[in-house]
Amino acid sequence: MTPQPELPRVRVGSPDGVLAVVPHLLGFHPASSLVVLGASGPSGRVRLAFRYDLPDPPDPALTAAITSHTAALLHREHLTTAIIIGYGPGTLVTPLADAAREAMPGAGLQLQDVLRVQDGRYWSYLCQEPSCCSAEGVPFDTAAHPAAAALTVAGLPARADRAALATTLAPLTGSGAQAMAEAMRRAEQAAARLITRTGPRALDTPGLAAVRAAIGLYRDGGTISQPARHARLGLALTSLRVRDDAWARMDPEHRDAHRRLWTDIVRRAQPGYAAAPAALLAFTAWQSGDGALANIAIDRALADTPGYSMALLLRDALAAGIPPSAARLPMTPDEVAASYADADTAAASG
């Protein structure tokens, strides 16, 4: 789901304009998907965009669940108007379109249009005028529409598909991957020696300092290129104390810098070290209203560490359609430090 907190104002007044905007709202060109745009107010400005996979084969129970979930999300966000677009063959789209046309008006929701898109053409389930909605469909070109260019310039690119978006978090390959593997091996050896000398919490203090310094560097426009430093950051973030301190510093004012930081670390993370930075990236993407990237980051975290609790928590929040305004910091850094100090005290006294 992609709530839209700060969309640039691009006016579209036709189906081809709407279809040009959709890939930029999602971050990729959808396929085999049902996309819902929710709007409110006299301007009809889009406030919410979310997507479902098309049930294949059609499934009445899934169709009913999607329709109910759509209505619930729109109502919760106080949205009164929707555009529904199915990307795929009529055999898969029409059952969902028919269910929406039947259920939404009764739920107090106005359907501005219900479209089906396939092979560069669209059909409207609401338009009955052959002069503008022929049986052969209406050809369109999203890339040629001015709205697509405007949104790209505004920093909302559209990748070819969801897989292309996922490649932005893909692990490094080649010499870069080899350098990171060697750097992580050395970092693990150094960490083992330190823990042997001073105990299991030996990495917390240097880990906190390293992650805080990285956050500050990226906020100042900098970047980290040294494999050894990335390895130390990945190792440090396996500590929940360090991860939670970083989480508490995810001020949305700096979300673009945070996205760069966590993306850099995720791409360089060795197996077993990607879950924490990927979950932090998911939180940052959620703050930005980028539900597609948030879900891909969650997938990355859970593929690395199945059952990772922060990733599961964020997945539940996104599935429930909770808006970015709710992506508040769980605690301040001081509160995080105090909570761990209290836990240490309790453990020592117990």
Explain what the structure shows:
The protein is an alpha+beta fold and 350 residues long. The chain folds into 2 domains: 2-160, Cytidine Deaminase, domain 2, CATH 3.40.140.10; 167-349, no CATH class. The chain has helices at 15-26, 60-76, 90-103, 146-153, 162-166, 174-198, 204-219, 227-236, 240-247, 255-268, 275-287, 291-304, 309-319, 333-349; strands at 2-3, 33-40, 45-53, 81-87, 110-118, 121-124, 138-139. Strand 5 and strand 6 form a beta hairpin. The longest helix has 25 residues, at 174-198. It is elongated and about 80 Å long. It starts with a strand and ends with a helix. The model is unreliable at 1-5 (pLDDT under 50).
Calculate Rg over CA atoms: 23 Å
Count of alpha/pi helices: 14
**Fraction in beta strands:** 5-15%
Global shape? elongated
Strand order of the largest sheet: 1-3-2-4-5-6-7
Please outline the major beta sheet.
7 strands, mixed
Compact overview of the structure:
53% of the residues lie in helices and 12% in strands.
